[in-house]
Amino acid sequence: MLLPALIELIESGEKFHFALAGTNSQDPDYEQEILAQIQASPLKHCTTIAGFVTGGAKTAWLQAADLFVLPSEYENFGCDREAWQSVPVVISDRVALSDTVRSIDAGWITDRSNLSEILRSALHATPAERRRR
């Protein structure tokens, strides 16, 4: 879901840098498919593949980020508490804590059909608005 939305943003002239962190040890073929999609798209020029990061490195990546994006259909978001505490989030309405994020206006919520629109709004938010969220 995320890659097509990011490609749509690039094609509409948006400027950003995408950092992809994490691995998929349960399905390495899927991980390789995602990496191949990035390399075969306009994303290859604005993407850093961070791999699996923990501890201080994870904290540093989050502190350097403007947004944390989790457009998942099934994540519980609990594993990404550090993200929520460090940087504004764009998450899907299917992430377990989306109601909480919505109720305290701590980020942007997408139903996945409007992901590129929500990302555009978040990217254009003022620094003060991002801090507030």
Task: Outline the structure in words.
- It contains seven helices and five strands.
- It has about 130 residues and is of the alpha/beta class.
- Strands 3-4-5 form a three-stranded parallel beta sheet. Strands 1-2 form a two-stranded parallel ribbon.
- Helix 2 links the parallel strand 1 and strand 2.
- The longest helix is centred in the first third of the chain and has 12 residues.
Q: Classify the helix fraction into a percent range.
A: 40-55%
- SS class: alpha/beta
Strand ordering within the main sheet: 3-4-5
- The radius of gyration computed from the alpha-carbon positions, rounded to a whole number of angstroms, is 14 Å
Q: Helix count?
A: 7
Describe the sheet with the most strands: 3 strands, parallel
What's the overall average pLDDT, rounded?
A: 90
SSE arrangement:
Layout: H1 2-11, E1 18-21, H2 28-39, E2 47-51, H3 55-64, E3 68-70, H4 81-86, E4 89-92, H5 98-103, E5 107-110, H6 115-123, H7 127-132
Parallel strand pairs: 1-2, 3-4, 4-5
Helix pairs in contact: 1-6
